[in-house]
Design a protein that fits this description.
- It contains 8 helices and 7 strands.
- By secondary structure, the protein is α+β, with helices and mostly antiparallel strands.
- The protein has 2 domains: 3-84, Nucleic acid-binding proteins (OB fold (Dihydrolipoamide Acetyltransferase, E2P)), CATH 2.40.50; 87-244, de novo design (two linked rop proteins) (Up-down Bundle).
- The strands form 2 sheets. The chain has a 5-stranded mixed β-barrel.
- Strand 6 and strand 7 form a beta hairpin.
- It starts with a helix and ends in a 13-residue tail after the last helix.
Length: 248
Amino acid sequence: MPSSIASRTYRTIGVVLRTYKLGEADRIIVLLTRDQGQVRAVAKGVRRTSSKFGSRLEPFMSVDLQLAHGRSLDVITQAETKGAYGHGIASDYGCYTAATAIAETAERLTDIGEAGGAQYALVAGAFSALSRNLHPSELILDSYLLRALATAGWAPSFTNCARCEAPGPHSAFSAPLGGAVCPTCRPPGSASPSTAAMELLGALLTGDWTIADASDAGARREAAGLVGAYVQWHLERGVPSLKYVERV
């Protein structure tokens, strides 16, 4: 390959977060990549039935890509499937809504300057788990949300007080203060979740699936509400697709 052409192209591995129609046959593909962060690129002719890689660039797919630098948007020139997560996710409504909320959150987090790396690994892992039904879809989603925010610098505490670090467990939760709060630090209006819900939140953050999978419906509903409040506080507005997620 001539050096002038090589300098205009690059390879990366990423997951497809979202797609938009462009013109009559093209699409804009929003990717979260392992080493380039969030990338928006054009896939030319991908909506034609003759396209060689149209199905590889559907939401939730993991792909090995070659791209060419463009003036405003890069152009996808090659795409090979690494993880065919899309079909398994799209065939189950609960998994699909959870994956959509994950993709929306990932797009928001990485659009404000968060590098790829760890965020890419979290999204790819969540899509893989959803496609294989490894755990209840709503738990995979809540675990992803907590870990993604922690990776972005907003790690919650579910044991010691998030403000003064007084040893826990504590019986109050404040999203603005960062999680569990002691009686002294507890601001007015703080939530009072059950012990089971707080234990579940800690398990989801650390990836303790033995505890998470054994949780009951009440604890899951409580935990989901606290996760939603925590996400909304730190992203400054809610994730609209969360309202479509099926909860037990």
